Amino acid sequence: MKDQIQPPKWATKLLRWYCAPHLLNELEGDLHELFAQRLHAYGLHEACRRYVLDVFSLMRPFALKKQPEKYPKTAFYQIAMIRNYLKIAFRNLAKHKMFSLINIMGLSAGMTACFLIALYVHFELTYDAFNTKADRIYRVSTDVQTSSETLRYSISPWAMASNMKNEFPEIETYARVQKDEMLFRTGDLKFKEEDALLADSTLFQVFDFRLLKGDPRTALTAPFRIVLTETAARKYFGSTDPMGQTLLLGDKGEPAQVTGIMQDPPANSQIRGDIFVSMSTYTAHQDKNIEREWGSFGAIAYVLLKPGADPVALEKKFPAFLQNHAGKMMAEQQMQIHMLLEPLRNVYLHSTRPADESGNVNNVYVFAAVALFIMLIACINFVNLTTARSVERAREVGVRKAVGAGKSTLARQFLAESTLLCLLAFFISIILSAALIPIFNELAGKVVSAGIIYELPFVATLLAAALLIGLLSGIYPAFVLSSFEPVRVLKGRFTTSLKGIMLRKGLVTVQFTISITMIIATIVVYTQLDFMRGYDLGFSKDQTLVIQGGTDRERDAFEESIASLAGVKSATASSAVPGGWNPQAFSKIENKSGEMQAGNMDVYRVDYDFIPQYGLQVVAGRGFSKLFGTDSIQSLIINEAAARVLGYASPGEAVGKRFDQWGRQGTIIGVVKDFHFRSLQETIKPLTFRTLDFWNGKLLSVQIEGKNVKQTLSAIENRWKTIHPDQPFSYYFLDEFYDRQYRTDERFEALFVNFATLAIFISCLGLLGLASYSTVQRTKEIGVRKVMGASAVNIVALLSWDFLLLVGIAFAIAAPVAWFVMNRWLDGFAYKTSIHFWIFVAAALLAAFVALATISFQTIRAAMMNPVKSLRSE
Question: For the whole model, what pTM was predicted?
Answer without folding.
Answer: 0.78
